[in-house]
Design brief:
Layout (H helix, E strand, L loop, with lengths): L2 H7 L1 E7 L3 H12 L4 E5 L9 E4 L3 H8 L2 H6 L3 E3 L1 E5 L6 E4 L5 E5 H14 L3 E4 L2 E6 L3 E5 L5 E11 L12 E2 L8 E8 L31 E6 L2 E7 L4 E8 L9 H12 L4 H7 L2 E10 L4 E2 L3 E2 L2 E3 L14 H21 L4 H31 L5 H5 L8 H22 L1 H12 L5 E3 L5 E8 L2 E11 L5 E4 L1 E2 L2 E2 H8 L5 H11 L5 H13 L3 E3 L2
Parallel strand pairs: 1-2, 1-11, 2-8, 5-14, 11-20
Antiparallel strand pairs: 3-7, 4-7, 5-6, 9-10, 10-11, 12-18, 13-16, 13-17, 14-15, 15-16, 19-20, 21-27, 22-23, 23-24, 25-26
Helix pairs in contact: 2-5, 2-8, 3-8, 8-9, 9-11, 12-15
The chain binds flavin-adenine dinucleotide.
Flavin-adenine dinucleotide (FAD) binds next to helix 2, strand 2, strand 3, strand 9 and helix 8.
Length: 529
């Protein structure tokens, strides 16, 4: 019996299907938290890998997953921003405002994360293709020599990306007009790429040709054209991945020859990227991959969760796919840890997971729809208008959008509430305070993350006028139950603020005063001074 078979036959706490950013992140955390984890993933060789851009905000997620040091040690190319030719013909600088993003060849990046999962104690088995899952009990697959592999697990995480071994049954389809095909080519150029650099002060200077090492701030270039968009990610001074995003209904990609011709024809519709690739050599044949968005009707069930791209996919335009997948892996680890250690909280934890995943997907979807809408004002092709409607025909999306809007509406309604405004003014003038809860204070609970677990956290039922009654725990980052608990202990607002900052997260003063004004304005607290 092979090592894979022997290890895979043993029962584990968690089986993770897929070794992309979502799977590796979840596996690393769960193993680090003391669970036995088996990660099964296909081999990453034998098919091309994409080059992708990761925004600076990914670092927060690297910290949460515990891989920041390893990612930094891998010394990926860094970038200070993007060059965007989107609404008009002139390239525009879109800098990250001080932070630095990464340009990664995904195969290399994924290997760093997988190594970290292994170092944390997860058994990582590369070269196993999972075929079927009888959740939550067994995962069935085959290794590269065709031998059967069966893993028994108490919990299964489907992190298999677009393949969606468990997830594909639960997917929602987007409108036909929103399907997108990515055509990818790798280009090599010996001299400098004639591309505008978006660093402030650099103007339209091309990248210098005499760099001995890969230029540290080689930007992603994004360019819209009449019926598609193109982007280019550098992986070294000489190599760039150049991808065009097209509507597959009008761009057939079934034969290698026609795909190459189609790719070059699409690239020919651009201005800047056509010029940049003009004197460059195309390495190998271009290839195609599906880049259509999709959502999910459900995000898990007893003993299983859908994680990362297995659950939902956002348009690559956002450049947030990896961040979203790693954040999803982190959340799945917290939810799985809760389900395994506290089965009585399993439903609460899974509901929280589903709600969060829906909200995140919908919020990214709305962001990218807004970008497409910008171009649809200039270009009349349906490629743009079809992608400009964030709700589309997806019933799940509509629900989540409404939920997200409900939160925004709540904050807006509270800000405009005259009683809250009056309380704010009174607080600012009050020489001293003696805050007390009132009988109208109604406590309830909401699921929330506390460390590595989902808990039923105390919250308030807040009457938000037109937005209805909503369970609220945090307002503008302020933990309301915590604030309530300490409110009576301090005779001055500055003392209360300092005490809150010391014992809780450091929040800005206007947010703190705003939250306190809501408690007073809504009659949950009163000032007896
Ligand atoms: C054209 C394009 C460009 C993109 N550009 C960017 C970008 O610039 N920045 C960005 O952040 N995101 C980008 N994305 C999105 C990003 O690639 C994904 O969001 C991200 O990879 C999701 O990670 P994941 O772990 O959920 O899934 P994946 O990365 O897809 O990982 C799934 C894993 O499961 C394995 N697997 C699949 N089936 C099986 C099976 N049956 N058995 C075992 N293992 C299996 C796969 O081999 C893989 O390792 C882009 C996507 C596309 C399509």
């Amino acid at each position: 019996m092979s090592l894979v078979q022997r290890e895979a036959r043993a029962a584990v706490d968690v089986a993770v299907i897929g070794g992309g950013p979502a799977g590796a992140s979840a596996a690393r955390l769960l193993a680090a938290w003391g669970h036995s984890v088996l990660l099964l993933t296909k081999s990453d060789t034998g098919h091309p890998s994409l080059a992708e851009s990761l925004p600076p905000s990914c670092r927060k997620v690297f910290d949460a997953v515990g891989v920041r040091e390893a990612v930094e040690a891998a010394r990926f190319l860094t970038t200070g921003g993007n060059t965007v030719c989107w609404e008009g013909a002139r390239p525009r600088a879109a800098t990250f405002g001080g932070g630095r993003g990464l340009q990664v060849l995904r195969r290399d990046f994924d290997r760093v994360l997988l190594a970290e999962a292994g170092r944390a104690g997860a058994a990582v088995r590369i070269g196993v293709t999972v075929r079927d899952v009888t959740v939550p009990d067994a995962v069935h697959g085959r290794d590269e020599r065709g031998r059967a592999v069966t893993a028994h697990a108490r919990f299964v995480l489907d992190c298999s990306g677009r393949a969606g071994i468990v997830a594909r049954r639960h997917r929602t389809r987007v409108q036909a007009g929103e399907t997108t095909l990515a055509l990818v080519g790798v280009w090599r150029r010996r001299d400098a790429w004639p591309l505008p650099d978006c660093n402030p002060g650099d103007g339209d200077d091309p990248l210098p040709s005499d760099d001995a090492v890969p230029r540290d701030d080689a930007q992603t270039v994004v360019e819209a054209y009449a019926d598609g968009w193109a982007w280019s990610v550098p992986v070294s001074r000489h190599r760039r991945y150049v991808t065009v995003m097209v509507d597959p209904r009008t761009t057939r990609a079934d034969r290698a020859e026609s795909l190459r011709a189609r790719y070059l024809a699409e690239l020919g519709k651009t201005t800047h990227l056509a010029r940049a690739t003009g004197g460059a050599a195309l390495e190998g044949a271009p290839w195609a991959c599906d880049a259509s968005q999709y959502g999910a009707r459900r995000f898990g069930g007893p003993g299983f969760l859908l994680v990362g791209d297995a659950a939902t996919f956002i348009d690559p335009l956002s450049s947030f796919g990896v961040k979203k997948a790693m954040a999803s892996g982190w959340l799945a680890a917290v939810v799985t840890n809760t389900c395994l250690r506290h089965p009585d909280r399993a439903v609460l934890a899974r509901d929280f997971h589903a709600q969060r995943e829906r909200q995140i997907w919908e919020s990214y979807r709305r962001q990218t729809a807004a970008f497409f809408a910008q171009v649809s004002r200039r270009e009349l092709h349906p490629f743009w208008s079809d992608r400009s409607d964030p709700a589309g025909s997806d019933p799940v999306g509509v629900g989540a959008a409404a939920e997200a809007e409900g939160r925004d509406e709540l904050v807006a309604a509270l800000r405009a509430d005259p009683a809250v405004q009056a309380a704010f003014e009174a607080l600012r003038r009050a020489p001293s305070i003696r805050l007390r809860p009132t009988p109208s204070l109604r406590m309830t609970t909401v699921p929330a993350v506390e460390g590595r677990e989902i808990v039923a956290a105390p919250s308030f039922a807040l009457d938000a006028g037109a937005a209805g009654s909503i369970a609220v725990r945090h307002l503008r980052g302020v933990d309301l139950p915590a604030l309530l608990e300490m409110a009576g202990e301090h005779p001055q607002v500055p003392d209360l603020y300092a005490a809150y900052r010391r014992s809780r997260a450091p929040v800005e003063l206007p947010d703190f005063l705003g939250a306190l004004s809501v408690l007073l304005g809504k009659g949950l607290l009163r000032n007896d001074k």
